[in-house]
Amino acid sequence: DLLAHLYIEPGAQGRGIGEALLERAKRRRRSLDLRVFAANTRARAFYARHGFSEVGADDGSGNEEGLPDLLLRWRR
Length: 76
What we know:
Layout: H1 17-27, E1 31-37, H2 41-49, E2 53-58, E3 69-75
Antiparallel strand pairs: 1-3, 2-3
């Protein structure tokens, strides 16, 4: 399953909201895939803490911003 668009308002970050949403999604699925900008080190660290690993990368030609993406995956 693909997890798309998990964004937390900057002023609300660091309060456990993203963690709660992600854990809820993980309880409902056996696996989750998502894309994150390669340059977004804060998001990459967040997903790594929650058991996601890098399984692919692309040059960003498939997203609106044209920025390189990483494909991350979590499995139960």
